[in-house]
Here is the input.
Amino acid sequence: MADSRRRDWRDAALVALAGLALLLIADALIQDANVAKGDDLIYELMADKPFETHSFPFAYRFLVPTLAHVLPFGNSFWFAWLAWLSTAACGGVAYVLMRRFAVNRPLAAGLALCLVLCPPLLVVSLRQGRNVDPETLLVMLAGGLAVADRRPLALAAIVVVGATIRESALFLIPFAYAYWAVRPLDRLALRQTAGVAIPGLAVYVAVRTGIPTTPPQGCSPARRPSLPAYPGSPTARPTGRRTSSTTCSTVRFSPRSWSTSPRCGSANGQPCARTRASSAKARRSA
Here is the structure.
């Protein structure tokens, strides 16, 4: 058993090296996206100024941008290399994980290399690595391996690190109990899972309460809209409710009201076609 597992890790290192070589070749042959935008731009700003306030929820995913900031040779260099190394490591860990479930070696190696070159990870490489998807996947795979090997301490460390990369690492906690428990209420598995959960949840709560954030881009704190009255009616009254006071939300109005949606012409002070038709029908019936 021990010899077989050592061989699995040796083969995994070869798979990771092969995956890294294939990824670099693919990155060289495909034109990169050199201009950061969307989520990539947020992570780039976090790496430039890691101690300033950033957008929710990206400000909580600070580990990778902070590493890119503190390491030498610049943000772009380390964003790219952290993404490449994490993607290659995903292939190696995926190989070992498949071997734990008796997948034969050639098939496991082939599937692991397919994972390294899968479009979501390749796109991050083409965007200069300004994202945390490869690191997140590595955390989930490493956590899955720790669960399969029944190693609570290793899993606790992975969850702690993962909580600073992306909050999805916390989903490893219920997954561990589901795998370790032999009955619906298994006290031993529950104690082990609690030991895994407490450090990770403590770090996550500290991050959520200790790091200030700004609202998501394009959003502003919700406030009651100021609506003009359309012809022949008192001031329009919204009939829907906002779902959040700090995030973008959709407000629905009755057919005889004005809409805040740009598609309905609220930006230029004109009612939408549906509102005009409803108003005309009401005047005819009156």
About this structure: Residues 117 and 146 are 24 Å apart (CA to CA).
